[in-house]
Amino acid sequence: MKKVILAIAALGFAGAAVAQDVEDTNGDGVYSMDELMVAYPDLTEEVFVTIDANGDGAVDADELAAAQEAGTLMQ
User: Fold this and answer.
1) Which residues of 16-42 are buried (b: 16+ CB within 10 A; e: fewer)?
2) Torsion angles phi and psi, residue 32, rounded to 5
3) 10-residue block means of pLDDT along the chain (75 residues)?
4) What is the reported pLDDT for 21?
5) pLDDT at site 9
6) 68, CA 20 to 30 Å: which among 13, 18, 26, 39?
7) Domain annotation for the chain: domains and CATH numbers
8) Cβ(47)–Cβ(58) under 8 Å?
9) Helical H segments across the chain, by residue range
């Protein structure tokens, strides 16, 4: 049981670590295109829309991690 809990905890920390590449400068808990462009200067609006899986106009930590894991954004 401890191994399962440790594995789940490790996955949670890994997701948090991935999102640390980008700074949430306004503190709203999500990343705007401008915030992402600081870390990814070649980001296009087309790619941003693809990353924004729920279409809310912002990228949350899970969407960012998914984009990095898929290779859409390089870490």
Assistant:
1) eebbeebeeeeeeebbbbebbeebbee
2) -85, 170
3) 40 43 94 96 96 98 95 84
4) 76
5) 38
6) 26
7) 2-70 (1.10.238.10)
8) no
9) 2-19, 33-39, 45-51, 61-70
